[in-house]
Structure formats: C-alpha cells, structure tokens
Amino acid sequence: MYVAVRRYEGVTDSAEAAHLVNEGFVPLMRQVSGFVAYYWIDAGDGVMVSTSVFQDRAGAEESISMASDFVRDNLASLLPNPPEVMAGEVVASA
Questions:
Q1: Of 1, 80, 83, 87, whose CA is between 20 and 30 Å from 62?
Q2: pTM of this prediction?
Q3: Beta strands in the chain (DSSP E)
Q4: Pairwise CA distance, residues 53 & 73, whole Å
C-alpha cells in the first residue's frame, strides 16, 4: 500500500473546508484506481491534514495531483498556504 499525506496550515474556516472536501473531493478520491481510504483531519489551530491510502504508488501520486487541482479550484481562499506533501510505501501497519 501507498499513502499520501498533505498538511495544510493557515486554514481560514475548517468547518467549511471539511464540508467542501466531504462533498466534492471525497467522491473524486473514491474513483481513483486502487483507492483504499481517505481521511480529512482537523488538527486544530488552523491546521488540517489529509491522508489518502491506495493499493499502489500510481493511485497515491494521482491523489496528490487531484488534491492540488481541487484546492486551487475550490478551496484557495480557505487553504491559502501550499501544503507540505509526503508520500510513500506503507512498511508497517496494524
């Protein structure tokens, strides 16, 4: 499995961001080949984190591209700062 994690700081309205992600982005993630799971986390203090889990690297990489496009087109005013993006292979799990 592969995971992509995106950490957003300076979120201006976490409730609205969560609503837009749930209504618009989650359905897109479910369509990506190899999709396993997606999580949008409110870490508090203007920080939100997304975690996308896929069966292969291609799905994780596609999710990174899709997230960038979705933020640009739908969330730019709520997520004004570029995210810290990390991705890699799952090497241990429970």
A1: 80
A2: 0.92
A3: 2-8, 35-44, 47-54, 84-89
A4: 23
